[in-house]
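Folding Query — how this chain folds
Tokens — whole-number codes for backbone shape
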Amino acid sequence: MKIGLIGFGKAGKAVANVILQNTEFSLEWVLKNSPMPSIFSAAELLGVNSEDQGLIYSLKNITVDELLDMHPVDVIIDFSSTDSIFVYGKMAAERKVTIISAISHYGDVEKELLKELSEETTVF
């Protein structure tokens, strides 16, 4: 299963670490809102020996459409912020990418969008 990860804080890094060590999953990419780090691989940054590199991208240098076209995934796991669903949600749903959101404080507007997206793809 190919996975894209949005958000690379403490929780995102912990999940990336687990994915990178599991041969049944492939961490295709990590997407951050901040500028590009000096290390471009999650595996290298986390010190994990993995065939997957989990390349790190920045929204400042690439669009979600470009990223999904270059590196398609089966699942997006989101550890970023409440408004990020507006950045990637519709594009992911159109491509039938499963959305796993680890955001705990969605407002009514975000919940409504998630409900709409769940009509096109699986949303957790």
